[in-house]
Design goal:
The structure is a homopentamer. By secondary structure, the first copy, chain A, is of the alpha+beta class. The first copy, chain A, is 59% helix and 16% strand. In chain A, helix 5 packs antiparallel against helix 6 and helix 6 packs antiparallel against helix 7. The radius of gyration of chain A is 35 Å and the shape is rod-shaped. Chains B and D meet through strand 4, helix 6, helix 7, helix 8 and helix 9 of B and helix 7 of D. Chains A, B, C, D, E: It catalyses: Mg(2+)(in) = Mg(2+)(out).
Chain lengths: 325, 325, 325, 325, 325
């Protein structure tokens, strides 16, 4: 679905003929410095074909743009840059990270954004940018920066949410309660792997943009991309640290299970002793010797019971003292 | 066995004399731009010698082509490129990855494909290519691309199948059932190692092709190889992620075993208590004291049995409550 | 809050008009070689804006300086260097590493230091430097060196404190006492990760300063930065070693738990044997056979008791001897 | 001991004066293109000194050649190349990898081979080469290639033998039998470390030879060294894979131990239940109540025994059903 | 303490005025090619200051030389090289690696050696060198080589001693005895980390010396440094291998603990069965049924005892057969 389609002149949105968000008309002729921005969401093959024809896009890039399971990358086809960005967002209800995809075609005088799935809302980014004519004046590269910045900001939010999750896991692992943390840790590791797959492949190209190793990026814009690269670096460090902490937390979880088993075993043994020792006493007074004076005492029975209770009490005290119960 | 042998002129198959798939005749003289494509399956030494003589192939490459246990590589002997590709495919019945091998000799005006074992069917690739004269016009490099693309597509399918297997293992590890996941995880790790051995050595040469660092690859073809390199990269990331997840799953499996042992131990202990406590009571009333009033009660016996049952019932309730049974 | 503001001429502090630490006046005109040093602590947005205007700082850097959760970095905006340093210090009471942040803007003729949180006291550094006019003569770079040196010295102190903590953990792990070292090890690993995040990103830029790959660093100053780089390297090696040792200590802790469980199990079993064998003897003399001569002995009962005690004593001796009790 | 000593002219062995394998005569004057090949086995210091004087070898290299515990390396002393190769071979009887050493001095017109210990038999290599005058015509480099090829072939054989050993270990780990695989895995890991130490240091120099980065290696010979480098690469990949598989197998072994312990514990508990429940019944009928009707039944005793057997039988059935026995 | 002070002319020691090992006189004027060698042990600040003034050493280097906790490094201050070497030696009595430090200042015409702590005795090195005038003729670089060679030889000896320790640990881990190997393994890992910290930072500078990337090192000396670099490489490989083997040995140790626990558990259970089954029999004949024929047999008691002993014997035989006892 074509979501929006506009021409920008000196950073200001110019109404297109009929201002119809569909692409029913041919490509808009641009003055130098102007550019057209077309936004598509969950594109049909027809829409992609139309766009490809309008802006003369490379078939391989168009094919990739139609598929929502690409890995993040930045590629150059002739004059056109093609970016695949993974969008990530954190769903609080499910404590889960979800992924979408944004594809960008950045030409000299046009921008095509293709969004798959939910996640970062490009309409908001566009509205924000339209408020800042000074930024938009830098042309398509400014749009690319704005979107990358938006996407990476979202990564940082996901990173922060995962940090909280890891804190929770940590608390749970070290709490005295009997918790089944291994599923939770595993799920978090899976999500971290997901984030890593989104973040890592972007670091290199963003660093290249930041270093100005791209003809259409001027020094001013490069500085902005340095900011993006820096944030990406921060996210990837957070992610690596969390991954390591989770591994350590898992080991601690294993240790805790062992310790608990040990404690249970000691508790069980102590409990057993409380029963077995009186049983021995009962056994003794169940013997059939002719001469067992206690048996004939008036309070023999009471004595035996007292002996049993006493022995158990002593054991109980002893185990309490030595921490087994 | 020589499977097919044809001359291509302007991307179109030209019937050879007698159109006989055997190589009974000398090498076909080619117009500039034409090339000959010979396909061999499980070659005999004689066939290899014949081919080597026809196209003046390097003896070391021919020796490698005759051996089906090569590692993937791309080598250059004079004007001729020699590729060893591992073919992978997933056998659903056995949940196993199987491997074959394809060797390619790519010359200025010829292509020789040598297939070992099953796997990717080159006859299909050839038929597909023959439909697309425009691609075939690019000559031997187009054939090389088509085959690499085919092989790598198969890798992606294997990667996807392994992802499903890992999902199954995951489910099994975290299911309450008592499963023996370690064999399964081990087997999967083995298969992942197999895939890695096929994929990794290809990444570097494909990247070189993609970067156009090869004289006989023009810009257009390089773009296509970039696609192949990108897919290889994706497969290798999937494989790495799966390997890590399997390691974590294994740890979770170990944790689960420990937890189960702990639970079993507590269940056993609770069960034991249900028997041992009544035994103590029985022991008490088996004592031979002269004065044990209960022994002379009319309902003493019933009282004792009730005591036993009662004690067990209390214990049962207690253990149920505290989650030990 | 603006903490201090002074002009340095030939390495000597020159009282500013009114010597008022607030920035109520415009930027001080400098002779060549002179520089102004403004120190800010926990800046408000207004203060940052004022400073940014005075020294014409880049908005992205100013934005970073206002945020106390940056990663360490060295960036260049036109003629101005922008440094983010993490300050670390060890709080003995809590055995914890705390972090603050210092941002530096180093221009040709000015230094702006922005401190967030506690930690390294820059006022002290300034006083020290003011004693050493010869060093201050080198200008802003000397200030940058002095602060980096100060911060990295603090890292070394933290490293040493962590080494002591690891020694304590080690002792605890290998002590015969039943200790819960996993929490402690986990916390230490977290702190080490914190230190690593402060140290690692600085290594590369410091090495670059040390190699003189920066126009405003003369050879003499480069030598000093080599010292800083060397200390950073030492800290990061200490940190890596500690991390590895902690992992090994954790494994040893796990082993210890297993060994303890084993010892407990043997102790429990030996203890059980001391009760179960007399119970068997009691059971035997509780049998109701008509002809059991011991039952009619005068000292039969004493004999039985002696047998029980004797059996237990033998077992006790045996278990002591074989190390089970 | 000097094993062989010959002059090669145009790739053909020329009998030396007296054809005496000892070095009793001075160095043989060579026509251009000719070279002398001296083979030594377990050299004495005198022999080394003699050789060193004859061919003007560097003292450091000669010292290394006299010591059989060098690491593999390729070094250049003036015009002379000095190679240290580790020879590996697999002793089937002991399932062990043994190591020897070959040192090569390769000059413009001479080859000195110094062999320590058993392993690769250079006499065979020499005989093989002497059959192939065409190869020998390439001079000392051809000899170097031939020996490297021989040695690396042996590595591949060792790699294959280790693969079989790992397969055996794998089978043993996953077999239901109670096996002590940890010693076996440890030994294999040790042997793999041995192989790695022989293989890894050679990879880089062989790659350099293969890339022709050595003046005395012509293109044709470089191609052959590419073959050697490729085989080395294959061995080192096999070795890495095996090492990883062994680690995983070890983990699986640990898991198996835990599972077995769990199964044993359940078996033991079930077995105990079969005895403890009848004991309780016996205890009940051992009570001394006045009114216990069963005691006076004619078949009371039989009833009690039947109850015991019945209870055990029910338990047995139950445990069989639930897989505990 | 200044230990020795001499002038070397053409590789021969020249008595200084008064030949007094103290530095009471000014610096000795040197002919070209001559050099002065001052040796200091555990220097006082005054001695360092004196030396620094005499040879015009850089204050940062002098500061480092006064501190015995530097990391190994090679630095250049103007014309002077400054080396920090860690000396290692193995104390047999304690099975421990101890560390000292040597600092070298290598100028065009002087050498200053500063030794901290025990370890490598430089007086011996000096005596050895003085015997070899030919080596000493190469000037300060020869001294540097001789000391590095000496220090690295000591590393190799430490490496060999650690190899023996690992062999002992290995034997202990796989011996049937119940050993507490985790402390030992941990200590060894700590020592290996120590060695690594001494060895690793030297590899790169020694390789640079060996490659002749240092103006004052001629080709002949470079060859000697190649020898040093090679030995360093060997030590670091040995160390890495040992570290890996220790990790594997630790895992094997863990496995052994588990196996032992399992065996103990089975032994305990078997032992318990030997007591519990007779107890059941005793319980049976302790029942009070009116009609229990065995009770009235003349040899009933003997029969019961025989039954008990028989049952135990059968169990004993059974457990022996199945390896539980």
């Amino acid at each position: 679905m074509i979501v929006d389609n506009a021409l920008y002149h000196d950073g200001v949105r110019v109404a297109l003929d009929g201002d119809d968000p569909s692409l029913g008309h041919a490509r808009v002729p641009c003055d130098p410095g102007d550019f057209q921005w077309v936004g598509i969401h969950d594109p049909t093959d027809d829409e992609l074909a139309l766009i490809a024809k309008m802006f003369d896009l490379h078939p391989l890039a168009v094919e990739d743009a139609g598929d929502s399971h690409q890995r993040p990358k930045v590629e150059r086809y002739g004059d056109t840059l093609f970016l695949v960005l993974k969008t990530l967002w954190y769903v609080d209800d499910q404590d889960a990270v979800e992924t979408g995809e944004i594809n960008l075609f950045i030409g000299r005088d046009f921008v095509v954004t293709v969004r798959h799935g939910q996640g970062v809302n490009l309409a908001d980014s566009r509205r924000d940018l339209e408020q800042r004519a000074k930024v938009l004046e830098h042309g398509p590269m400014a749009v690319m920066y704005a979107i990358c910045d938006r996407v990476v900001d979202e990564y940082e939010r996901v990173g922060a949410a995962l940090e909280e999750d890891v804190d929770e896991v940590e608390e749970s692992v070290f709490s005295p309660a009997r918790t089944n943390d291994s599923v939770r840790i595993y799920t978090l590791k899976r999500e971290i792997a997901e984030v890593r797959r989104a973040v890592l492949p972007l670091r290199e190209p963003m660093r290249r943009f930041a270093a100005g190793q791209h003809e259409s990026i001027d020094d001013e814009t490069a500085t902005y991309f340095r900011d993006v690269a820096d944030h990406l670096q921060r996210v990837s460090e957070v992610i690596d640290t969390l991954d390591n902490l989770l591994s350590t937390a898992f080991d601690a979880h294993l240790a805790r299970i062992s310790v608990q088993q040990n404690e249970d075993m000691r508790k069980i043994s102590a409990g057993a002793a409380l029963v077995v020792v009186p049983t021995l006493i009962a056994g003794v007074y169940g013997m059939n010797f002719d001469h067992m004076p206690e048996l004939h005492w008036t309070y023999g029975y009471a004595f035996a019971i007292a002996l049993m209770v006493g022995a158990s009490a002593v054991l109980l005290w002893f185990f309490k003292k030595s921490g087994w119960l």
